[in-house]
Design a protein that fits this description.
8 strands; two-stranded antiparallel ribbon
Length: 508
């Protein structure tokens, strides 16, 4: 290459670099140019709402931004996630507008969906538009009170196995609470979703446990995938990007296929969720009538929905049980009061736990709600606008296709809403206080048409596990118990950063 060629190449590289730098800088100053207040601390290529190397949990990143906007009296403010501008919501009335009042403008989450190239990405959580609406209608009947009652005995049986496991353990001091609750919920979900005995309480390395935890491990590569899938959707589909590791995808796809074939061959009738999915009538979401169609869903749709309920169901309930037991160990008076309620229910002649007796435990409801207030499993909610949106009572016009982020953790620990928020106080959920509080200040399962479809199922298995444990064991802090909870930066959902050990004493 002659001198002119080298000069041209150098000039081209410099020009492209300058254009790229200018593009990225414009992204960083996006909100200032629109006249919308933006958060401090934005860094080149990182922004101010993302953490590199998974050194911080998302609640730790969003919390300072939430209070920065709140101090300025703002309903919301602009933030930057890597290079993409987003809106962080502060005002609970604006939360209501987004989740309920103007739901037609915010009905999607803006996450990656590619059922053809990545079947497991097609779960209800990620689906958008009419695909979501059709699937939600199909799945809603599966989670009625009547269907939950059919699943209840399975939960009780697994909880009883957990009790026996603890009572037979000769080393209660080495029982790690997070591991224990995870194995319980894996066994419940495996039974209830697939009709399969996972035996996680006996086998700590069961395939269900390993694959479920692997699917929810949030490392740096997973964060990059979420970013690409959410903001560069067409590119992600072009390269057939997979949100979940291939071995996880293969495991759940093969499991679903084998389970469906077994049910069709043997005419098995069961109360598990997969069987109920197979009995859904109507057309599939894409209108096909191919041989792989079972009822109103294709095999891929069955796998995606079953996978979603398995992973979301075991991790959220496990974390809630873990945090609840931890708080009860630090607040013995609350633990004793809850145990007295459990005793009183059994004293009424109920020798075995029933669906109705669980529903009657009002103090249990308050304990679980306060746990969810302080430790919401999903610490922030996301919605994407499908049209330009004027922030009510402001001059801020937010362009279409902007992601709105609702910091649930920050809202539920805001001292203006919940005085002394670090204190575990069940009185916050006395009926009078709940009635006087804005309902959009408590969002552990979201709100509106896209709230968590399995919330009642999750609460039920959590309560069954807690009642069984508290009836037979007392929990208290020991030398290894942390006095301040730290959160795992590598978890998609909120969970403890390190192992959690408590003193466990059997109750005669």
């Amino acid at each position: 290459m002659n001198g002119d060629g080298v000069s041209f190449l150098v000039a081209a590289v410099i020009l492209l670099g300058a254009l790229a730098f200018n593009y990225l800088r414009r992204k960083q100053t996006y909100w200032q140019r629109l006249g919308i207040p933006s958060g401090q601390g934005s860094r080149f290529l990182v922004g101010n709402a993302a953490g590199l190397g998974n050194t911080k949990q998302s609640s730790d990143i969003l919390d300072p931004l939430y209070y920065e906007f709140k101090r300025q009296g703002l309903k919301c403010g602009g933030i930057v996630f890597f290079i993409e501008p987003e809106i962080l919501v502060v005002d609970p009335d604006l939360v209501k507008t987004i989740l309920v009042k103007d739901f037609n403008k915010f009905h999607d989450r803006g996450v990656y969906v590619n059922p053809e190239g990545d079947p497991l990405s097609g779960g209800l959580f990620a689906l958008s538009g009419n695909d979501w609406r059709m699937m939600r209608q199909k799945l809603t009947p599966v989670f009625t009170s009547g269907k939950l009652k059919l699943m209840f005995s399975t939960m009780v049986n697994v909880a009883d196995r957990m009790r026996v496991f603890l009572q037979n353990s000769k080393t209660l001091a080495e029982i790690e609470i997070r591991d224990l609750t995870s194995r319980y919920t894996v066994d419940v979900i495996g039974n209830v979703v697939f009709g399969i005995e996972c035996n996680s309480l006996k086998n700590t390395d069961s395939d269900f446990s390993v694959m479920g935890k692997k699917a929810l491990q949030f490392d740096t590569m997973q964060m990059i995938k979420f970013f690409i899938g959410g903001h560069l959707n067409s590119f992600a589909k072009t390269i057939s990007m997979r949100m979940f590791p291939m071995d996880v995808s293969n495991f759940f796809m093969n499991l679903t296929r084998e389970s469906v074939d077994f049910r069709k061959t043997t005419n098995l009738t069961s109360n598990d969720i997969l069987t109920q999915f197979m009995q859904i009538k109507g057309k599939t979401n894409n209108g096909t009538t191919a041989d792989c169609v079972v009822g109103g869903m294709t095999l891929n749709e069955l796998a995606a929905q079953s996978f979603q309920f398995f992973t979301a169901g075991f991790e959220t309930s496990s974390a809630t049980m873990t945090f609840c037991i931890y708080e009860l160990a630090l607040n013995i008076d609350i633990q004793d009061r809850l145990r007295e309620e459990i005793k009183s229910v059994y004293a009424e002649g109920k020798q075995k736990l029933s669906y109705e007796s669980i529903q009657s435990m009002q103090y249990l409801n308050k304990v679980v709600d306060e746990t969810l207030r302080k430790y919401p499993p999903v610490d922030n909610l996301i919605r994407i606008s499908n049209c330009p949106f004027q922030i009510p009572e402001t001059d801020f016009l937010v362009p279409a296709n902007t992601l709105f982020r609702i910091p649930v953790f920050s809202i539920q620990r805001d001292p203006d809403h919940y005085p002394d928020p670090e204190r575990f106080d069940t009185d916050r959920f006395e009926s009078e206080k709940v009635g006087s509080r804005n309902p959009y200040l408590f969002l552990p399962f979201g709100e509106g048409p896209r709230n968590c479809i399995g919330l009642r199922f999750g609460l039920l298995q959590t309560k069954v596990g807690l009642v069984t444990l508290l009836q037979h064991f007392r929990f208290s802090a020991e030398a290894r118990t942390p006095m301040k909870m730290e959160f795992d930066p590598k978890g998609i959902l909120l969970r403890p950063k390190s192992a959690l050990y408590l003193k466990i004493e059997p109750i005669n």
